[in-house]
Amino acid sequence: MTEIQGPPQAPVGLSIVVPVYRGAATVGALVAALSALRPEGGLEIILVNDGSPDNSGDVCRALLPTATVPLTYIEHARNFGEHNAVMTGLRHARGAYVITMDDDLQNPPEEVVKLYDHARLGGWDVVYTRYAKKEHEGWRNLGSRFANGVADMLLDKPKGLYLSSFRCMSALAVRQVTHYRGPYPYVDGLLMQVTQRLDSIEVKHLPRAEGRSNYTLKRLVLLWLNLATNFSVLPLRLAIVAGVAMGILGILGALLVIVEALIGATPSGWASMMTVTLLIAGVQFLILGVLGEYVGRAFLSANGKPQGVVREVRGPAARDATVPTAPDYARSQAAE
């Protein structure tokens, strides 16, 4: 009888991936708090400096010699975005489970073990966190609700499941997600394509310790575009519906003009014609914009726009790196 082999034993029980951007004032305290945790199987911390303009890189490097747990530092050659940084961190993670969290201390480190144990003991592939009260600014909370409402329509996810950046994933989910090499990753969209073993737990959410949120309105819009155009064709179908609706309105308008002419009334003139013309032109340009967004992203992906370029890797996970460093990337480009 052939013995069924299970998944390979992970070097550590838990990997914690932290994308760092303008986090010089908080990342040291975060690493210290995480290092004090004692999860089952041990832990490692992976810091991904996503082209931060402050001295976050120097702060992270200074933590390496004194780290009491395995600590890996990864530096992107430029700013690629939070989800791109998370993808780079996931490729270097070695744990049986991986938790992603922000560097701003709004997610209490003491909630990490609670999240990890819930996923591990419950056999879940992905566990998200939800908050009784979010301590973001008002416009950020509105943006999050809007993004989750859009995700309900576009993604194959349980209705009402809150998608947060503080999440725990099994090694199985991480391996499948990191197969994606496109330049516009949306981690939650990729997870929805991988597994249906999803759950959520409630955790605390604290006010931001330092500075302001790194998410601007522009960054949120780009994130929504990643969600809409990378994981669904619903915008294209809505464009078809808009075209059909305008066609029906055009037919009704033509019938109205014919009826007015038959009863001897003077058909509506310049004002109504210009209104209809501008309305139709607006819908046409909207449809062209949606098509252009899809085509443009496909063009950039086909031309090799990188998901992330790693300049430097330091720490235990460096020898297991699956993402090329900058010199490796340059050599591969030259070979092509």
Share of β-strand residues: 5-15%
Termini separation: 47 Å
Helix content: 40-55%
Q: What profile does the largest beta sheet have?
A: 8 strands, mixed
Name the helix and strand elements from N-terminus to C-terminus, one letter apiece: EHEHEHEHEHEHHEHHHEH
Radius of gyration: 25 Å
Which parts are unreliable, with pLDDT below 50 for 5 consecutive residues or more?
Answer: 1-6, 322-336
**Number of DSSP E strands:** 8
Summed over residues and divided by their number, the pLDDT gives a mean of 82
Looking at the structure, what is the overall shape? elongated
Structural class: alpha/beta
Strand order of the largest sheet: 7-5-6-4-1-2-3-8
**Helical region count?**
11
What is the topological layout?
Layout: E1 12-20, H1 27-35, E2 43-49, H2 56-63, E3 71-76, H3 82-92, E4 95-100, H4 111-122, E5 126-131, H5 138-154, E6 167-170, H6 171-177, H7 187-194, E7 198-203, H8 217-230, H9 234-262, H10 270-302, E8 310-314, H11 326-335
Helix pairs in contact: 5-8, 6-7, 9-10
